[in-house]
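Tokens for Carbohydrate ABC transporter permease. Go.
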Amino acid sequence: MHKNTFVKWETIYRYFVLCVVFLIVIFPYYWIVVTSFKTMGQISSAKSIFIPNPFTLKNYTHLIKDTHFLLWFKNSLSVAIVTVIITLILSNLAAYSIGRIRFRGKKLIATLVLVFYLFPPTVIFIPLYLMLNKIGLTNKLEGVMLIYPTITLAFSTWFLISFYRSIPMELEEAALIDGASRFQAFRKVILPLTLPAQTAAAIFSFSWCWDEFLYALVFLQDVGKQTMNIGVYEFSLADIYPWGLLMSAGVLMSIPVIVLYVFVQKYMIRGLTAGAVKE
């Protein structure tokens, strides 16, 4: 009887802690959404704090009709998609070579990949700017599309190496014996098995591009070329913050990433645990 009572109270305590943690995590998001539906008067006077009264869509209307938000959204989406494609192509080729092909200096290259991943982006943005300036790609989305993979490529390669190593060599050897070339064995046998890891690497690359601020601020000056983060940042004038506009922009900016995670979370979990155990 005493043991059952202890288990019951332990369960209640665990659920209580989980609820408290959940509320702490979810409250900022709730606050953003609620504030986006408030008038400026409600926000400045701290009225109707938890529920908008009156409920208004003026912030969203103003954001879409009177700013370049949709153009910024398109720019951010284009940059993120191109970066993900470049990252996946190059990181797969690099990770496959390092993880499955024997050659001299392989361990050194794998170590350098990790070192480059650990490099803070702020260290290299000046050299990158000088390089883009020389080839005439500053203030162009194409330049940012070339620069972003310098950050995402190192992580994706390092992440995929362990997954490629975990795939049994016998699968590839069987394909080679059947007459397939190494590239055919990679494309038709090995690559399909890496879908969960590809998904995790793609989500990381997309999320990083979607949230990136520093490079976009340095490389893109024209309003029509800016990404969302820079455009929304410029809504603020000195110490004046249009909170309703900022919060509505924050809600719309979060939707693509949330939708992406919801639809691919199954593959994301597989990808994050893939390669953790060696066969």
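Confidence is low (pLDDT under 50) at residues 275-279.
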